[in-house]
Amino acid sequence: MERKITKQVCVGGVPVGGGARIPVQSMTNTDTRDAAATAAQIRRLAEAGCDIVRLTVPDAEAAESFREIRRLVPDVPLVADIHFDYRLAVMCADYGVDKIRINPGNIGSEDGVRQVAEACLARHIPVRIGVNGGSLGKPLLAKYGSPTPQALYESAMGHIALLNRFGFDDIVISVKSSSVTATAEACRFVSENCEYPLHIGVTEAGTRRMGIIKNAAALGALITSGIGDTVRVSLTDDPVEEVYAARDILMALGCPGHTGMDIVSCPTCGRTGIDLCSLVAGFEKAVRDEGLASLDIKVAIMGCVVNGPGEAREADVGIAGGRGEALLFAKGEIIRKVPEDGITAALIDYIKDNFVK
Ligand code: SF4
Question: Structure pTM?
Fold first, then answer.
């Protein structure tokens, strides 16, 4: 997959852009003023595979709490999300933040932008300009009538110009909408017209099912065109689910550095002789519980001997169901017959014995 090579920035040791592996991001939904709860959620996100975690810093109390959060999680790259008040950005820069998300046009005077730019320059902290359809400025809304892709793009360019005025260039851009097509088109405009890395994803995408579908559609369209340097899958759900979804989408797209277990299973039909739906769901859960999801292997779970053996043979390990039992395959060879209630255990045991170092 060819990628557009953007300018690279570094977020607490994680490179973003310049052809680097696409890092996964998410955002805490705890009260930032509760440092212990926020730090615990940051840890959960990092354990789930989140590379960069953002947290909101709405006031000075939250900024002071950020200082403690930084102390509690010194090893996870953290982004402070700040609106309207440049002083909070300067405080977070002092307290060791790794990136700031801010829209320079919305944080007060030009002098405030200058102070943020200077604080970030001095500490090599990049800034993400995050333009969202829902918070587009009034002049652009009046000009375009709605948050069109062109309006999102123009807004981003305006914020970039403000930062550039103070010699600041370590910029990441996002232009997001709740519409898949508007998000993709706005990202294409930005990608065609500037070299800054792009943070991509559909914002306010909804609950788990539709949110994942919308994000997969947008990320698929963009990443297969070579666009996108870091992702967030926004969901109305536990943020850990955002991380799982983002990782799975990047894995499905074959993005380098995002390998993991590929489970191939058939849609079932009248031939299916075992309870395949429950079997696959149970197997997926067991894989996660046993910490095997990151193994770069293909597992085929097929309902019958028509297409089953073919897929199972192509996989590292697999089963083809019969009536109340299944054939266990590995590397193209039949290993043995397994009763239906022992299939998950047989697969898990085989994987542990053969693929876990
Ligand atoms: S693999 Fe067999 S059971 Fe599954 S959908 Fe195909 S024909 Fe039906």
Answer: 0.91
